[in-house]
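FYI - complex with fe (ii) ion, inputs then prediction.
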Amino acid sequence: MTYETTQTDGIKLMMDEHQLILRVLTVMRTACLNLLKTGEYTDSDFRQMIEFVRNFADAHHHGKEEKLLFNRMTEELGPAAEKLVTHGMLVEHDLGRLYIRQLEDALNRIKDDESAVLDIIANAVGYTDLLKRHIDKEDRVAYTFAERHLREETKIEIDKACEAFELEQSEKGIQRRYNEMVKGLEAKYL
Ligand SMILES: [Fe+2]
Ligand SMILES: [Fe+2]
């Protein structure tokens, strides 16, 4: 039996997105180290990192995982997938959102509360640690599990849905905007 193919390999695309996200995590950690050493930071750069995390890492990337891949895994692959996805990956996506909310809150209150600097560093570094481990687990375990065990038809449906979503997002300039943003931040921090 042969299956229709698409231009997009959804899982490969998500692995490539991990590489872009990891680059921002490196910038974030470096900005925290600079803050620790000098006592200074640039508010607008942290706001850009938050925007990247919310719009690219979360809405664009985790959005694809949650709506196009993980849902298919829990439907098709039974309790092992349920445990890995619902009690692992999704919980970590939520914890990431909490770190970023707390980071933003710390940036907002630092004028009135100098101890907020602790919360900037703690939440930003906490987020980078969480996401690095999360990405490693997806690359090595969750995606591999999906590749090996999802039905071929399902994988093709995922690829097609990813392709359509990518097109929709590129019409809004999302991928280009965040690729450029990462380059700009790296040029400044690394
Ligand atoms: Fe994820
Ligand atoms: Fe991911």
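The chain has one domain: 10-189. The pocket of fe (ii) ion (ligand 2) is lined by residues 14, 18, 61, 65, 135, 138 (CB under 6 Å).
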